[in-house]
Amino acid sequence: MTVNEAVPRGEGAPFTPRPVKAGADDPVEVRMTVNGTPTALSLPARVTLADALRDHLGLTGTHVGCEHGVCGMCTVLVDGEAARACLLFAVQLDGADIVTVEGLGRPEALHPLQESFGRHHALQCGFCTPGFLMSSYDLLTNQPDVTEEELPEELSGVICRCTGYRNILTAVDETRRAHPEGVPAPGNCGRTALVGRAGQGADASDGPDETENAASSGTQDIVLPGGDPTIAVRITTGIDLPEDRVWGVLDDIHLLARCLPGAELTDDYGHGHYAGRARVSVGPVKLTFNGVAQILEHDRAAGRLRAIAQGQDTGGAQTQADITLTTEATETGTAMHADAKVYLTGRIAQFGRALAGDVSRRMFEQFADAVTEAAASGQAPSGPVKAPSALSLVFAPLLDRVKRLLRRGGRRRRGGREKER
Ligand code: FES
Ligand code: FES
């Protein structure tokens, strides 16, 4: 199978698909920036961009109708230009910048086109809506002086089976009038960077060699998305040991990593950069993330340790986290606070916030328990700290209750013995 080759582009030059020579099922590495997030995938050469977005990155907003370039349902932006995602092989798009309907607006801040489609009832079943939104965004951006009379022809590349054309045209026309200089840019493209690429939103590097070197050595800085995290967790744990003992664990990154549920440290690049792997179960789905972590702050005197991390699984699920551990001395020992902001994208983001929040909370509770055990023994916790499973999440509240009752019973018995003496 041979497809046209990728050609390097200058600023503003149209995207030219790269030529790739590979068997249809041969995996090919491809790196794209999707909705502002750099992604790295290994895909069979036959996978279309539409399937890569839907099946490998979990971005199911891009719909597929005819798969022949006729219906326009699959329209996305490739380097700022509308393109049929069913007609492009993903492996052709190395280095491309893709925007899908998910990148257009946020639920709490929809793009003006989305607002207008809603206001004018420009959707019935909604199947053509992503294609119409991306196509009309492209039209109003590249041709803001388009006239009302020209709209039917200009938008004829997308087919609505529900024949909602009149309302669709009204919605696009209203947006055109409200933004004569061109519509606002997509509002949901995060500023992130993954290892190995300085894409949109990544910190600028001094040159390509340096970027590549930093990427391959894992020392490229991690950039977290702006905006609200998907999940915010704060767990406070009381540890019956002095702060010094707790910092005995926090100072030893390898020991600390052994306390992270389902995680292992695979590389230490120096300068506070690490590579690792983490296994997570969300409901019935098991994911293995490969990623990097960076220690931003390690201040024993101030009782503060801050790290950021990001990982990606082979199915394209991505997670990023900003974690701060703080300690303070208490009458009985140490209070350890774990504050985490977790950002989820791709397949994993489809799970409800509540379930993903439960998993995160449970993981931090297990982490705190493991730190307590390691601080008490001065050694790594006995046995690997397992990531929470669906079953453990269901039974966790029950187990916690039993533990609390046992502790209370133990205190009462001790109290009774004290009185007897
Ligand atoms: S699915 Fe791509 S144009 Fe119809
Ligand atoms: S709203 Fe149903 S296909 Fe257009």
From TrEMBL:
Residues 1-23, 197-223 are annotated as: Disordered. Pfam families: COXG, Fer2, Fer2_2. It comes from the Bacteria. Keywords: 2Fe-2S, Iron, Iron-sulfur, Metal-binding, Oxidoreductase. Pathway: Alkaloid degradation; nicotine degradation. Residues 28-104 form the 2Fe-2S ferredoxin-type domain. GO terms for molecular function: 2 iron, 2 sulfur cluster binding; metal ion binding; oxidoreductase activity. InterPro entries: 2Fe-2S-bd, 2Fe-2S-bd_dom_sf, 2Fe-2S_ferredoxin-like_sf, 2Fe-2S_ferredoxin-type, 2Fe2S_fd_BS, Beta-grasp_dom_sf, CO_DH_gsu, Diverse_Oxidoreductases. SUPFAM superfamilies: 2Fe-2S ferredoxin-like, Bet v1-like, CO dehydrogenase ISP C-domain like. PANTHER family: OXIDOREDUCTASE WITH IRON-SULFUR SUBUNIT. This is Carbon monoxide dehydrogenase. It comes from Streptomyces antimycoticus.
